[in-house]
Amino acid sequence: MRKLASLTALLLILSSTADAKDSDYEKAMARAVAAIENQSYSEATVELNDALAIKNDDSQALLYLGIAQARTGDMNAESTLKSALRSDPSNSRIHYELGNLYMKRASFEEAKDYYEEVIRNDGEGELSESARNALKMINSRKESKRWDAKILTGFQYDDNVVPKSCILNLCCEMYL
To answer: Has residue 47 been placed in a domain?
Structure first.
């Protein structure tokens, strides 16, 4: 009977510890999302790192951390978003944010791939509409690029170069 009581007490302690961790995680995530909405990306990064210390493979925390990093130009944004994608490959928001990241870097073919995946996964949702608009921008950029031409003609003058005839005259005058 004593062993059963001890085991029950241990389980209660472990479950309350897990509940406290879940609560801390939820609070950190709520503060992080609020910080991102207020464009306080450095504050969001701190909160998201706290959340990830509790649940290190959580795709939502990784997604929001990637968003905060991308908005501040942090070079880790790509790897963070790809980690989120590995955790949740069907999450349209992660695909959309990777598309935005590559669009910002002018890697239009990679951005296009991610935007097309958003449309496949999201159907007619809000993200799909944004992805379609981004694809239109990419495609219009390609169409305008086709007719881009440069015509180069040139003549170069360099006043540091002494003509050969002057060199010959100088040589001849020196020997005279």
So the answer is: yes
Neighbour-count burial for 72-81, b at 16+ CB within 10 Å, e otherwise: eeeeebbebb
In a domain, 171, yes or no: no
Q: Label residue 146 by pLDDT band (50, 70, 90).
A: low
Q: Stretch 29-52: mean pLDDT, rounded?
A: 94
Q: Is residue 172 part of a domain?
A: no
Predicted confidence at residue 81, as pLDDT, reads 96
Quote the domain boundaries for residue 67: 15-150
CA distance 59 to 49: 13
Whether 4 is covered by a domain: the verdict is no
Whole-structure pTM value: 0.69
| Residues above pLDDT 70, as percent of the chain | 68
DSSP state of 55: S
| DSSP E strand stretches across the chain | none
The CA distance from 72 to 77, in Å, is: 9
* 5 or 122, higher pLDDT: 122
Across 127-157, b (16+ Cβ under 10 Å) vs e yields bbebbeebbeebeeeeeeeeeeeeeeeeeee
